[in-house]
Amino acid sequence: MYESDRPLVAVNPTRATDLDFEIVVSHYNEDLSWLEQHRTECCLYSKGGDKNAPEPPFAFTPLPNIGREGHTFLYHIVNNYENLADVTLFLQGRIDDHVDISLSDMKERAMSVRPGQVRTYPFRELEIFDHWNGIPWEQYPCWKRWSSMDTQKMKETPLELFQQYITESDQVPVAVGFAPGAIFAVKKETIHQHSKAFYERLLKKMFLGEMAHVNPETGHYMERFWLALLNPSEYIQWEDTECAMEERNEDGQLAKGHWYRTPTGSDVDLGATRRGETLDSPLTPLTPSTPFTRSSVTPSSPDTSLSMMTDEEAVERKLSLS
Known about the structure:
alpha/beta; 9 helices; 9 strands; single chain; 3-stranded antiparallel β-sheet; 23% helix; 6-stranded mixed β-sheet
């Protein structure tokens, strides 16, 4: 457990303060050779300790292994709020299981992002999140990697967190869209639509104190909240009838009301199998198996059924969370 009052380490002193473009990387023990050509554009945070520290010539800032990539990204925003790059691309230490274009192509697309817009990347489709009482992990065997881990449960429901810390509103959305893996690019103006104090409050609530854990439940929900936080008009669906006329947005990603739904009962994460498919390839229908109603959203009690894996090597691999 990481103590919330422990001083955070200083940001890498080699980082420039007048950048046009920057890649923020949340690393644990992944091979970073794919970043080599863009190494000087990276602000690398490593959570793997001395054992998994990146080899020279990669410079990095060590962080405690808590909070998954959400903690890393919020840490970067809070500690660099006044000198963010014009465009920031947020990545995990490995992305080839979510993205099938080169990093150079990702940068090119990132540089065309407009204020208020969030650039996301194929091949993973944008997905729907509407489990406002909490993800029913037992219904998704394909997510067993996460549900089998030791998890720090949160007291609030996802809806309560969303209302209090993301939208600061008592409205109940039908759903939000999210990019699996939290891989996205934004301009600093988009980040600056919220104050530094807003991000500090979010960081403290989501990932410090009792949630300072290698696998906090809040990490999974922050992954699902980023797009709604940064571009609510595009990624929050407030009403059942609020669907985009076109199936895809200008990025070629699924538009509001058309987001992909992972089918329950599947042993395979079908969203990860779409590499190389065309944008016209058919998707699993998005109709919920149980219709969502606002009256169905009630506070949920903590779930203590998750347990730590016993095999030490499996645990180490599963704890390689960026």
